[in-house]
Design goal:
The relative contact order is 0.13. An 8-stranded mixed sheet has the order 7-1-4-3-2-6-5-8, with no helix packed on it. The model has no long low-confidence stretch (mean pLDDT about 80). It is of the alpha/beta class and about 170 residues long. The chain is about 40% helix and about 30% strand. The chain has 2 helices and 8 strands, in the order H-E-E-E-E-E-E-E-E-H. Strand 5 and strand 6 form a beta hairpin.
Length: about 170
């Protein structure tokens, strides 16, 4: 009987270890912190975040140092974004943030510059962020301008053509 309980105990411990390893692996793969948090939350105010979502990366010089924790629409043209960044990259008084496109498919990230000022950003102080103009937006703007220019040329040519036909008819009479 004693051997039977030892086998049950071994199987039970093995199952608990396997479940623990599985859960820790899932947390690691999803990018969740397993130990104590060594991050700070940085509030940034944007006028337009262009599709930024929680979980998108925060990068300093192209290196991931955190992620977007939350995006809150407070009013039209007023969006608060909360960034979780490593404590080593906490913001200084001259910190900057920029929403940028990572690729042509709409993937976004926050380009974050912690700053070099001697004083750190005070608790509750908000950084004002900017947004990079996407290639697709620039192309749409360029297309609109080209259409306006072609319409102007077309109206000019149509008027010239009409005047030329009128002058030809007058000279034929």
């Amino acid at each position: 009987m004693d051997l039977y309980y030892k086998q049950e105990l071994k199987v039970g411990v093995l199952v608990i270890v396997a479940v623990t390893v599985f859960v820790l692996g899932l947390l690691w793969l999803s990018g969740q912190a397993i130990g104590p948090q060594s991050t700070v939350v940085v509030p940034v105010r944007f006028t337009n975040v262009a599709g930024l979502t929680p979980g998108d990366p925060v990068r300093v010089s192209g290196v991931k140092v955190g992620q977007v924790a939350n995006v809150v629409l407070e009013d039209v043209g007023n969006v608060m974004v909360y960034l979780e960044v490593r404590r080593a990259n906490r913001p200084h008084a001259d910190a900057q943030a920029l929403v940028a496109s990572a690729d042509f498919f709409g993937e976004k990230y926050v380009g974050y510059v912690p700053g070099n000022a001697p004083e750190l950003l005070r608790e509750g102080q908000v950084i004002t962020g900017t947004r990079e103009v996407a290639v697709t937006e620039a192309a749409a703007d360029l297309t609109g301008r080209a259409a306006d220019a072609l319409a102007g040329v077309q109206s000019l040519l149509s008027q010239r053509t009409a005047d030329a036909i009128h002058n030809t008819l007058v000279s034929l009479e």
